[in-house]
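Hi R.,

Here's the chain you asked about this morning:
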Amino acid sequence: MKIFVETDRLILREILSSDDQGMFELDSDPEVHKYVGQNPAKSIEECRKTIEYVREQYISNGIGRWAVVEKASNNFIGWSGLKILTETVNKHTNFYDLGYRFSKKYWGKGFATESAQASLEYGIEKLKLKEIFAMTDPQNLASRKVLEKIGMKYIETFEYDGKPSWRKEGELATWYKIIIPTL
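And here is the predicted structure, written out as tokens:
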């Protein structure tokens, strides 16, 4: 098991096949899916396929979303991190996207901000990225607040022009970006 980042309260590590129960708890909750396509997982097998997909991203792209584990309880509480989006979104292709998702019982505790900040720092310091993007539903004020807290800047609201599972064509998304200044 590879650990990528540790914060005061969290471990961000590779997602493992043994995270299937935690992923199912996370992705089967309709409230968790309110702003990500309203398509909660119906079986643990769906979550196992998601885990396989993320693990394939580690091999193909060298990066993918990470499991977030609360140090105090050693519980899988969600996922966070960077991934490369290869499809065209808002006239961009092959870009790093910051994302996160947490089980509802861990909302409001600052874990999204803490893990997003750690992921952003990893992208800047370890990957030497020059820019990182993030997208969220325009109505998801909590997620927008997280992105702004970590220094990302709102760029625009756009009609989503791709068809990944979390958005449908014609729906809106907000676009955030951070540009890392060169020294």
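One quick note: The beta strands are 3-6, 10-14, 66-70, 75-85, 95-102, 131-136, 153-159, 172-179.

Cheers,
M.
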